[in-house]
User: Fold these one by one.
Assistant:
Number 1:
Amino acid sequence: MDTTLHTPSEALADSVAKLAAARPVVIDVVPAREISAHHAAGGVSHAGPPIVPSKMCPPMRAALGAALTLEGAAGTAEEAIALVESGDIPLQPNHNVGGVGPMSGIVTGSMPVWVAKDEATGKTAWCPLNEGSGRVLRYGADGPDVLERLAWMRDVLAPALRVALEKTGPLDLYDLHIKALTDGDEAHHRTESGTAMSLVKLAPGLEDADPAVPRFIATNGQWFLNLAMVFSKLALDCARDVPGSPLLTAIARNGVEVGIQVSGTGDQWFVGPAAMPGPARLFAGYTEADMNPDLGDSAIVETYGLGALAVAASAEAAYNCGLDPEDRFAITTELRKIAAGESPDILLPNGKGAILGVDALAVAETRMSPPVHTGIAHKQPGVGQIGAGITHPPLQAFDEYAALVPTSAA
Amino acid sequence: MDTTLHTPSEALADSVAKLAAARPVVIDVVPAREISAHHAAGGVSHAGPPIVPSKMCPPMRAALGAALTLEGAAGTAEEAIALVESGDIPLQPNHNVGGVGPMSGIVTGSMPVWVAKDEATGKTAWCPLNEGSGRVLRYGADGPDVLERLAWMRDVLAPALRVALEKTGPLDLYDLHIKALTDGDEAHHRTESGTAMSLVKLAPGLEDADPAVPRFIATNGQWFLNLAMVFSKLALDCARDVPGSPLLTAIARNGVEVGIQVSGTGDQWFVGPAAMPGPARLFAGYTEADMNPDLGDSAIVETYGLGALAVAASAEAAYNCGLDPEDRFAITTELRKIAAGESPDILLPNGKGAILGVDALAVAETRMSPPVHTGIAHKQPGVGQIGAGITHPPLQAFDEYAALVPTSAA
C-alpha cells in the first residue's frame, strides 16, 4: 500500500494517473472457465452487485436458467436455478470475479469471453462476446433461437476469433477508442465505428473463417460494446485500491439494485435501488410500463468517462437515448463538475479531452449522479430489448461511500 | 465471328461456356472518366435502355440534375438538364458505355466506379460505389445531404479503396459469390455476407484509412450489390456477340421502359413498358400509389442467374421482396425452365448449382419472364427508397427478339 498519499486530491490524482496509463489489449478469446477460477469451479456469474436468484428481476432469472441449461447443468431452467439457490452452483457478480457482462450479464464456464491484458501491470479482465440485437440472452430472451446462437458463438465464432487474434496479434483497445470517438461513437449506445474498425483489425485473420463470422460482426453495430466494456473494466481495475482515492471504479446494475465501487475502498459495494430509465426512446409497440429497472455492467463505460459522459461525441446516441442532440455539448460540459480528470488522447469533437473517470465525492457533493446510456429490457422474460434511455445510479450509494470519508477531507 | 456454330443450342452452349469461364476481379476504383471515353468527353450516363431527359421518370431526372450540379456542369439542376436536352452534354445508357448503375444509375465523369477485369479475355466493366440506403441519389433523392455524401465518396472513400486495392491486390468476385451464396445472400436484395467478406478482404489495406471508411462499408448491407453488378455485367459481356446465341446479356430498366440484350444480337435493345413491382413489401407509411415503375441496371444480377433466380439461397430476400420464404426452393426449381445453364461452382443451399444465364428464346416460348428482386423508388423526386419487391421484364421485349430468329430454330 502506498503510504505517501496524504489528501484525497493526491490520492485521486494518483488513481487517475493509473487510469490514464492503462493500455488494455485483447489477447485472446477463451471459455470463461479458462480465465476465471470461479467459472472453472463450476460457478456462474451475473451483472451488478450481489443478488440471489429469488430476488433477481425476471429477465436475469430467465437468462440464468437458459444459460445453465445450455451448459448442461440441469435438464430444465427451473432445476438449474434450484441448484444455484441451494449453493450447489456457486454464484458471484461478474465484477467480483474479474469481469463484466452487459444487461443480465450471465456468464457460464463454457461461454467465450474476450480476455484483455494491460502489459505494464500484468492485469487482465474479461467480458463475453456481443450476441447482437433483438431476442438475445442478455435481455432475458431464452428461446431455442437464443440458445442456438449461443452454441454457434461458442463452437464457431469464438474459435474463429481466437485464430484471428493469433494471426493478427493483440487488439489495441486504447487506439480503437481514440479513433472511434472521432467518428460518431460514444462507445456505449453507439459503437458502429468501433465495430467496423475492430473488424478491420481482425480481418486478416478471418479470411479462412466461416463466412457467417465476419457477417455476424459487420451486421451487429453493438459488437464493439463488449470490447469497450472490457477496456473500461481493465483500465479501472488498474486504478483500484489507491488508499483514500474517491475515484469511481464500477457502476453495476442487477435490475433490482445498483452498486458502485470506489478505488479507496477496494471491492466494497455501495448500493441503492435501481431506477427506471428516463428519458427513454422505446421501440414501437412498447410503453414505459414494459420497462425493467436499470440493468447491466455496461455502465463501466461511463465509469471510465465514455458513453453518456462523452455524449458530445455522438448525436446518434443522444437521439436514440431520448435527448435532443443539440444539447450534447452542454451536457458533457456540465458533467465536468464530477470528472476526476481529462483524457489526454481520447478527444471529443470540440477538441477537448473526454472525461477521464468520475470523482465519487464530487457526485455526493454536487448531487449530480453520472448519467448512463443504457439498453432497456422488457420486464418480462423471453422478450428482449425494447428501447434505450438514460439512467443514473442512486445518490444513496454515493452518500454511503462519502459517509466513510473523514470529514477533514472536505 | 465464330462460323462453326450451326444451331441455337450449339450457340447457346458456347455462350454459356464463356459465361461460366468469366472470372471478374476488381482491379481499381477510378473516376468514371478514366475508364469510359464517353465520360472523359464530358458525358453522363443512366440506367436502362436509351431515354431522353424529357421522358425520364422524376427520380431519374432529379438524380441527373443533382449529379451534374455536383459535377459543376451548371449552376442549377434545371440548367444542367437543359444542357443534356440540347446535346451539349452527351447522354448514353450505362450498358452502351461499358458499365451498369443501380436504380437511376446516373454516372458522371468524376463519380468513382469499381473497375473489374477478366484476365483471360482482357475485358473490363465498371459500376459506381453503393451510397447506402435511405435518401440517396440513385433513388431520386437530391438534397444537400445526398450531394455531401457523394462528395465524401469521391474525395475520401474512393481514394481509400484505391489504396486498399493496391495493398491487397485484386478482389476475386467469383470466389466471393461462391461464399456469399452459402451464407444467406442471393446477391441482389440480400448482400450482407458479400459486404462483410469484401470488407474482410480489403481490410488489411484500410488500417490507415479514415475511420468513417470501414464504418460506411460495415453499416451498409447493400454495399456488395454494386460489386455483384459489376461481376455480372463483366461476366455477361464475356458471353456477348456469340452468333445465334439466345443467351440474355442484359435486363435494364429506366423507369419508363425495360430493355433486354441478347448475345446473338449484340448491342441491340429490345424494349417494352416498365412494370410496377409486385409483390412488394413497402416501408411503413407508403402505398402502392407511391411506387415508381421498374428502375435500374441491377437486374444484371438476375441476367447472370443470381438475385431472384437464386432466391432459394435467401429466406430473408424472399421475405423482404414480398414472398413466402417457404416457396423459395420451388420458385428456383420452376425457373430452371428458362435457365441457359447451371453454375458448376456457385451452389444453392440444396446443393444444386445456381442457374447460369437465361435463355431468351425459352422465355418467349414458356411465357415465363425472369423475376427480378428490385428496390422500389418513390415516384416523386427527393424521397428515396420506399420498399422492395419483384418485377418482370416485359414479354414484349423477348417476343421482339424471338421474331428475329429463323423459325427453323424452333
Note: Chain A has two domains: 23-229, 239-409.
Number 2:
Amino acid sequence: MHTGERMKRERWKSGFSEWFDETLWNAKIVETRYPVKGLYVWLPYGLKLRNRVLAIMRELLEKRGHEEMLFPLLIPENLFKKEAEHIRGFEEQVYWVTHGGKDRLDVKLALRPTSETSIYPMFALWIRSHADLPLKVFQVVNIFRYETKMTKPLVRLREVTTFKEAHTAHATPEDAEAQVMAAVEIYKKFFDELGVPYAITKRPPWDTFAGAVYSLAFDTLAPDGRTLQIGTIHNLGQNFAKVYGIKYEREDGSHEHVHQTCYGISERVIAATVMAHGDDLGPCFPPKVAPVQIVVVPIPFKKERNTEEVARKIAEELKATGLRVHFDGRDIRPGRKFYEWERHGIPLRLEIGPKDVNGGQVTTVRRDTGKRFVISLRTLVPDVKKTLEQINEDMRDKAWKSFSENMRELGEIKEIKKAMSTRAGIVRAPWCGKEDCGKELEEKTGGSVLGEELHHKRTGGECPVCSEPAKSSILIAKTY
Amino acid sequence: MHTGERMKRERWKSGFSEWFDETLWNAKIVETRYPVKGLYVWLPYGLKLRNRVLAIMRELLEKRGHEEMLFPLLIPENLFKKEAEHIRGFEEQVYWVTHGGKDRLDVKLALRPTSETSIYPMFALWIRSHADLPLKVFQVVNIFRYETKMTKPLVRLREVTTFKEAHTAHATPEDAEAQVMAAVEIYKKFFDELGVPYAITKRPPWDTFAGAVYSLAFDTLAPDGRTLQIGTIHNLGQNFAKVYGIKYEREDGSHEHVHQTCYGISERVIAATVMAHGDDLGPCFPPKVAPVQIVVVPIPFKKERNTEEVARKIAEELKATGLRVHFDGRDIRPGRKFYEWERHGIPLRLEIGPKDVNGGQVTTVRRDTGKRFVISLRTLVPDVKKTLEQINEDMRDKAWKSFSENMRELGEIKEIKKAMSTRAGIVRAPWCGKEDCGKELEEKTGGSVLGEELHHKRTGGECPVCSEPAKSSILIAKTY
C-alpha cells in the first residue's frame, strides 16, 4: 500500500462514518432525515442504482430457474411461531401489529423479519410429488427488524426496503447441498459484477441462522476495518418442512419431507459497493451499475457556443447505443459540474472544448483514476465502451487488492487481539475445529469468528487456543 | 348486443365472483389460500403481468418529468395525525404497530394506508424556493387497509401490494390545476394501453379524498354491472402544505405555501384488465401487457417429429425480435396445451402441423375471437406483429363497445332505481348541481353517485329530484 492509500485508510478509519453519511448525501442516494430511527428515503438517483443492482440479481436468478413471486408482509402469530428455533432467533426483533382501526386484532400480525414462515405454508400446498421438485422461487420485498443498536443507512435498518430472498425445496439432501453451492456461485458472480470483494465462510454453530442446519456467509470489509455481512446462504435441511408439513410423494408412492435452502441479500450490497470503490471525493460506481455511466460537459470558450452543440450530439450518439448518458448543458461553470458529478460517482466524464471540436476528438476523464486522455470521434463508441469495460475491471482489481492487503494470517492470541483493537481488517488463524476454542478466541481477542473458510484449507500451524494441530483456518474480525 | 354476448353477461352477473376467482386460479395469477383474510400471493405469471403493467405506468410518468423514489412504510402517530380531515378519513382503516420485540413502542407506528403523511414532511425539507418547483415524484409500494368488508383478490385487499402514488407540488393554484389535467391525460393513455374503458367524474363532496379540495376518479365496469374505481386524482390545494409547513420563497423574497396534487392507481387496474377482456375461457390479455404474447405448439403427426423442430425455430425467430414467446414442447396432446394456454389468456397461438411444414406456413389462432388463419413463413415476423397490433385495437374497441352499451341515460328516479336493482351498469342522469339532490338520488335509487362527468356536459333535461333544469350530468352506479 503506498503512502497516500494508507493515509486515506487511516482517515477513513477514524472518520468513516462521517464520510459514508456525506457520500450518501452528496450523491443523493438516500435522505436520512425521516423522523423515525432506522428508516430512510431512497432518492431518485439512489433508487436507479438500487434497481440496476437488482436487475443483475434478477437476471442471475432467472437464468438459473428461479421464479419471482410476491408474498404478504403480515404473518399471523400462530404461523410465525411454529418453528421454535426460528422464533427464538427473531422474537426480540419482530414488530407486531396489534390493532386495525380501533379494534384489537384477534390474532397479532408480525411484520416479516424474513419470509420462511409466510412462504413455507404455501410450499406445503403446492408441492405434491417429486415432479414438483425442485421448486425455486424468490421475492424482493421490504422486511422489518426492531433494531436496538445504532442504525446506519443501507447497513443497519429498521425497514430493510430491499430484501431479495430465494427459497428452494428439493427431493434429497444431496440436491439441497448442490443448491447451496449453486447459490454460492450466483452470489460470487453477483459481487464480481459489483466489483465487491468478499470472504466466504461457514458460520460457526452459535451464529447459524435460526432454524438452519448450517449457514454460509459472504463478508466484505468496510474502510474502517470492520466486516460487513452482505449475503447469507442457509441449508435448512428438513427442519421447516417437518414443522409446516411440506411433503412430496416419491415414485414408489411413499411420502417424504422436502429438503430446503434459502439465501438472501439486502441493500447492504449497495453500501458495500459504495464502500469498496469510494475515495475522498465520494462514491465511484462501476459502469455496470452506475445510474449514469457517462456525463458529457461542453467547455465553452468565450462566446463560442459551438462546443455545446457538438457535445449534445456526442451525448445523443452514445445514448443511442444503449449507454446511460447525461448531458449537462446548464449555464454554470464547468468546474462546478465536475465537482457535482464526481460526487455522484459517474465513472466517465467527456469534456468537449474548442480544441476537441477542431481536432475531432473528446477529452475523457476517468473517475476512478483521475486520468485524462483523448478519444477520436471516429472511434467514439467502441473506445468509450472499451474504456467502461476497463474501468469495471480495474475497479474490481483495486478493491480486491485492498481487501487482500487487509486480510492477514496470524497465529498468536496476542497478535490477533491487537489486530482487533486496531481494526486491522480480517485475520486468518489456524483452527483445531473445536467449537469451544472458537468461542474462547472471540472472548480473548474481542473479535468475532466469521467462520471456517469455504475455499481455503490450511495445512500447517496450531490452534491459538488449545495448541493442537490446525485442521482448517478460521476468519476473525470486528463486525458491523 | 347479440344474444350470445347477452347470455354471457347474464351468466356473469350471477356467477361473476366465481368466474373471477376461477380465472385468477387457472391463469396462475394469484394464490388465494394465504391464511389471513385479504392477503394474497402473486404467482410468477401474475407477477410478470403486474410488472408489465407497471412498466407502462413508469414510462408514462418518467416521460412527463416524474422521478421515482421510495419512502418508509411506517409513519409515527404524531406525524400521521397532523392533518385532521385526513386522519378522520382513514382512522378506521389503519393498522397500528404497537410493539417491537417485547417492548411497547413509545410512539405507535401506522402502516401507511397512503403516503401523504410520510412524504410531505420530506417535501418541507426539500422545497426552499420557486426554483425547486414543480416537484413531481412517485413511488410504487405496498399499503395497508384494515378492510372490514368482504375482501376480493386484486380488488379489495388488506395489503395492497401494488400502489403507485404520484405526489406533486407547485407554485400556483393554476399550476396545480394544470397538473390535475396532465394526470388525467396520463391515466387515459395508461388505460387505453390496457384496453380498459372508463368514465371520468368529479367525485361529489361527500366522496372526496380526505384532505383534498376535490377528487377526480376513473371508474370502469365489472361484468356484474358494478363499477370499479381504478384511478383517482386529487387537487389538495394548500391543505397539507399548511399543516406540514411546505413553503417556498418567491422571487420577491416573500414566502408562500405550495399547491399540491396526488394521484394513484393500484392492482385494481389488473383486475380491470382481466374483467374487461375475459370470457368463458378465462382472461384474455392485450398483447401490450400479456406476460406471454405468443405460444407456439407443434402438432406432431404419428411418428413425424419434424414439426417440433420447425416450431422451435419459429419460436426462436420471433423471440429474437423482442416478442414474448413460449414454445410448448411437452409430450402431451396439443388439445391439452390449447386448453391450458387459453386459460392463461395468451393472445396468439401458432400451430405447426405437417401441412404447415410442407406449405411453409403457420396456422394462427386468435384468443380474443377464436379465428384461425394462415401466415406464410416468408412474412412471419411482420404479419405476427401486425396481428398483435390488431388484437390490441380490437380488444380495446370491443371493451369500449360493451362499456358504452351498459351506460344508459335515464331521467326518472323510478327508472334509475330499477337499473340499480338489476345492476344494469352506469346511469347518466341530468343534474341541477345541488349536493342535496345528489344525496337524495343515492337514497332513493340505492345507487352511488360517481360524480359529475368531466367531459360530458348535458344541455337539456331536468334534475330527477327537484325538477329544476339540469346544469350538467351525473353518473350513478352500484359500486365495488
Note: The mean pLDDT of chain B is 94.
